[in-house]
Design goal:
There is one protein chain. By secondary structure, the protein is mainly alpha-helical. The chain has helices at residues 11-94, 96-107. The longest helix has 84 residues, at 11-94. The mean pLDDT is 88.
């Protein structure tokens, strides 16, 4: 066995070191690929979270619209009751028979 190379390795030893360096480089490449995949997955997670926040904000806006519509419904119902009360008042004022009956009912 003859000595060769800078570190005085035999051919078999140099071949073994060379194969291990190639294997180590392959492992390093696989590690970097896995790290990049992890970063991509994390970015995808952040995008999904942002989409969730946007959807939640849309839900809150829709709920606020629902509350406003419900408030309008209550106002319209109150307006309807007031209009009905005015109708009854006007109807009893111009119809003396009904006014007499209402007074009789109220007086007992």
């Amino acid at each position: 066995m003859s000595k060769r190379g800078l570190f005085c390795l035999t051919t078999e030893e140099a071949s073994f070191v060379y194969s291990k360096c190639i294997w180590l480089f392959g492992e390093l490449v696989q590690l970097l690929v896995s790290f990049v995949q992890l970063l991509v997955s994390f970015a995808d997670l952040l995008v999904s979270f942002a989409d969730l926040l946007v959807s939640f904000a849309g839900l809150l806006v829709s709920f606020a619209g629902l509350l406003v519509s419900f408030a309008h419904l209550l106002v319209n119902f109150a307006d309807l009751l007031v209009s009905f009360a005015h109708l009854l008042v006007n109807f009893t004022e111009f119809n003396p028979i009904i006014m007499k009956r209402c007074k009789a009912l109220l007086s007992g």
